Amino acid sequence: MKPDRRKITDLTILAAALAALVYFNLKSAGAPADSGGFRVITSTTPAMIEEMAYAIRNKRCAAITAWSPHWMNAKLPIKYLKDPEKVFGEAENVHTIVRRGFEADYPEVAKFLRQFKWKPADLDSLSLMSYECGGDFDKAAREWLKRNPELQAAFLKGVRPQPGAKLRMVDIGFYNEIATNRMLKILLEEHLGCEVTNVSTTIPIAFEALANGTQDVMVTVWLPNYHKNEFAKIRDRVTDLGVNLPGATMGIAVPEYAPVESIADLKDHRDEFGGKIIGNEPGQGILLLAEKALEVYGLK
User: Fold this and answer.
1) Is 245 buried (19+), middle (13-18) or exposed (0-12) by CB count in 10 A?
2) Cys-Cys link to 177, which of 82, 101, 185, 220 (CB 3.0-4.6 A)?
3) Is the pLDDT reported for residue 19 higher than 90?
4) Cβ atoms of residues 122 and 148 within 8 Å
5) What is this structure's pTM?
6) Across all residues in the chain, what is the average pLDDT?
7) Which of 279, 277, 280 is nearest to 31 (CA)?
8) Mean pLDDT value across residues 50-54
């Protein structure tokens, strides 16, 4: 089937317009006039990462909202600033959440999902490979599985095929999430005989879809803080299969060579950082925490 060139053109135009808007936002927004402080600038995750990469190439300082796991941690020489006031909380755990009744319907799949456990560095490597493959998530997932046979064996240990199982896996479209779900899709389809559909949507829709049973599985729920509010609304209508990735973190990151070690240190280096912390997409919880950090550490 030939690609729809009109759709491709439309997407290209949209991407160019978005990139221009983000570029204007980043370049024109500094700290509030006469404040001598910092402000959080919203952008997109790719634009935020490119700003950091540009700063590093030119030996400049930049501060971004960052989280682990993500391929940026494997690609860029960055460090997370200390947060003694715990504005960003302790380390998060990533949970596997399924709709009610899922375990009874698909016991072998549930067993597989309970055994799906890895570390931030594992996901960092998978998402970096996906990035370096130009977003070919299937190609990256297969190569990652080839390089990590021990993890694949642990995920599948003692799990029997469950042919005919039709699974709907939902995520919110972040690179890490898509990479994870594509890798799991390969294992579920080729080793358990399942039919898997991956859907990306917004946070509220994803959580409500799990609660009302129109989606089956979400393996990227960050608790106890990042998805706290959304999960609280559906807790009694879903099943938590447990933690699949411990030690996820959020915070503010800077180049490794930057002359700061804690968020509070930024106060004495406003000019070097341009008075701004570059954030990701509007509406994300990490941006609210970054705004709070400015207040707590007296950076406004």
Assistant:
1) buried
2) 220
3) no
4) yes
5) 0.79
6) 89
7) 277
8) 97
